[in-house]
Amino acid sequence: MEKLGKALGEVDRKVANLKQTFEKTTTEAAKLKVDLEKAQETITAAENLVGKLEGEYQRWSSQVSFKLFEEYSLGKGSK
Predict the structure, then answer these.
(1) pLDDT at 23
(2) What is the mean pLDDT of residues 35-51?
(3) Label partner for 61 (CA 20 to 30 A): which of 17, 24, 30, 77?
(4) DSSP characters for 22-67?
Protein backbone atom coordinates (compact mmCIF):
# COMPACT_ATOMS: atom_id res chain seq x y z
CA MET A 1 0.00 0.00 0.00
CA GLU A 2 2.86 2.38 0.77
CA LYS A 3 4.32 1.74 -2.72
CA LEU A 4 1.01 2.74 -4.28
CA GLY A 5 0.90 5.91 -2.20
CA LYS A 6 4.41 6.89 -3.31
CA ALA A 7 3.59 6.09 -6.94
CA LEU A 8 0.40 8.13 -6.73
CA GLY A 9 2.35 11.02 -5.22
CA GLU A 10 4.85 10.85 -8.09
CA VAL A 11 2.01 10.84 -10.62
CA ASP A 12 0.46 13.86 -8.89
CA ARG A 13 3.78 15.75 -9.08
CA LYS A 14 4.17 14.92 -12.75
CA VAL A 15 0.60 16.06 -13.44
CA ALA A 16 1.23 19.31 -11.55
CA ASN A 17 4.42 19.93 -13.57
CA LEU A 18 2.60 19.20 -16.81
CA LYS A 19 -0.24 21.56 -15.85
CA GLN A 20 2.29 24.29 -15.06
CA THR A 21 4.08 23.74 -18.37
CA PHE A 22 0.75 23.77 -20.20
CA GLU A 23 -0.32 27.04 -18.56
CA LYS A 24 3.03 28.68 -19.33
CA THR A 25 2.92 27.51 -22.93
CA THR A 26 -0.69 28.64 -23.32
CA THR A 27 0.19 32.09 -21.98
CA GLU A 28 3.16 32.36 -24.34
CA ALA A 29 0.96 31.28 -27.25
CA ALA A 30 -1.60 33.97 -26.41
CA LYS A 31 1.15 36.62 -26.27
CA LEU A 32 2.52 35.42 -29.60
CA LYS A 33 -0.95 35.59 -31.12
CA VAL A 34 -1.37 39.21 -29.98
CA ASP A 35 2.10 40.08 -31.32
CA LEU A 36 1.29 38.38 -34.61
CA GLU A 37 -1.96 40.32 -34.94
CA LYS A 38 -0.12 43.60 -34.28
CA ALA A 39 2.53 42.68 -36.84
CA GLN A 40 -0.17 41.85 -39.39
CA GLU A 41 -1.81 45.24 -38.77
CA THR A 42 1.55 46.93 -39.29
CA ILE A 43 2.14 45.01 -42.52
CA THR A 44 -1.33 45.89 -43.79
CA ALA A 45 -0.77 49.58 -43.00
CA ALA A 46 2.63 49.48 -44.71
CA GLU A 47 1.17 47.81 -47.81
CA ASN A 48 -1.54 50.47 -47.93
CA LEU A 49 1.04 53.24 -47.63
CA VAL A 50 3.24 51.71 -50.33
CA GLY A 51 0.22 51.49 -52.63
CA LYS A 52 -0.57 55.16 -52.06
CA LEU A 53 3.06 56.14 -52.59
CA GLU A 54 3.13 54.15 -55.84
CA GLY A 55 0.11 56.12 -57.03
CA GLU A 56 1.81 59.38 -56.11
CA TYR A 57 5.01 58.30 -57.86
CA GLN A 58 3.09 57.50 -61.02
CA ARG A 59 1.26 60.83 -60.85
CA TRP A 60 4.50 62.76 -60.31
CA SER A 61 6.25 60.86 -63.10
CA SER A 62 3.40 61.66 -65.45
CA GLN A 63 3.53 65.35 -64.51
CA VAL A 64 7.30 65.50 -64.95
CA SER A 65 7.05 63.78 -68.32
CA PHE A 66 4.36 66.21 -69.41
CA LYS A 67 6.39 69.22 -68.22
CA LEU A 68 9.50 67.93 -70.00
CA PHE A 69 7.46 67.42 -73.16
CA GLU A 70 6.03 70.95 -72.88
CA GLU A 71 9.48 72.45 -72.38
CA TYR A 72 10.89 70.45 -75.27
CA SER A 73 7.98 71.39 -77.51
CA LEU A 74 8.18 75.08 -76.59
CA GLY A 75 11.93 75.13 -76.98
CA LYS A 76 11.81 73.35 -80.34
CA GLY A 77 8.96 75.56 -81.61
CA SER A 78 10.82 78.78 -80.87
CA LYS A 79 13.89 77.79 -82.88
Answers:
(1) 98
(2) 98
(3) 77
(4) HHHHHHHHHHHHHHHHHHHHHHHHHHHHHHHHHHHHHHHHHHHHHH
